[in-house]
Structure formats: C-alpha cells, structure tokens
Amino acid sequence: MWSNLLLIILLIICVITDLKERKIYNKVLFPFLIIAWIFHAITGGWNGLTEAFLGTAVGLGILLIPYLLGGMGAGDVKLLAVIGGIKGLSFVLMASIYMALAGGIMAILFLLYRKGLLKRVIYLIHGLRHGMRLSLLEENDPVKTTLPYGVAIAAGAIYQVYFPGVLSL
Prior knowledge:
By secondary structure, the chain is an all-alpha fold. It contains 6 helices and no strands.
C-alpha cells in the first residue's frame, strides 16, 4: 500500500535525524504531509481527504499538551500529526497507544543505563544494608540530555503497521 511505503520512508528519515541531532525537520515533515493529503484526495475524494485531515488533527492533538507542558519537542508533535495525515484517524489513535508504551520503555531504559540510575540504586541498597545514607540522585547532575521520542513514535507506528489487529477501536 502506498501509505505504508510513504510512512516507512518518513520514519526512517525522522528516526535518523532524531537520534543524530535530536531534531525532526519541517522540511521533511511538510512535504510528506502535502503528498499524503494529495494522494488521499485523489484516491478517496472528499472522504479520503477528510480522513487525512482528521488524522492530522488528532495526531497533533495527542501530543500537543505534553509539548505545551515542556515534555517534548515540536517535531515530535508534528511527526505524529503527519502520521495521522498519511494513515488516518484510527491508525494514529492505535499507534499512539503503542507509542506511549514504547516511550515508557525507552524512558525506563534511558534512566537505568544512560543516567547510571541502576548503579545508584545498587549503591543505595548496599549503603542502607550497612547503615549508610546515600542520595539516590546527585544534586549536581541536572538532566541535560533528551529522549529521542521520535523513535518511540516510529516504533508505535511500525507496530501498528505490522500488527494492526492486536488492539482495535
């Protein structure tokens, strides 16, 4: 299906830029969105275009509040909106559930391994066993790195492409 191919190409590009630069570029997103809308209009008429617009709006709305609260970048929000524009309303709703699961797993792994939290927990437990009090988090170590949430968005979308019947609305 043309939309799956378009989606996979978009996700590959966005995952690479998100991992390398922590950015998802408008110059990538907007052409994909316009192409998706045009294809939906050609293949589905007004109904297809309406589905694409609804998918775009819902994709944008799902991550808008986390963005406004400072929890993620604008590129992540726009990526999910473009996914909705390419695949439609029900796809973006289901993909967002898988995206949230993938994002949670990524966040846990990020904290455990990249920030050394697992090592600190082990030290804390060991210190408590021997009567010492240790801080779990270092106060002089602010979190300066970001989680490439585009990867979680891509994982949710890919999962929905290949396993569409696992959960259904």
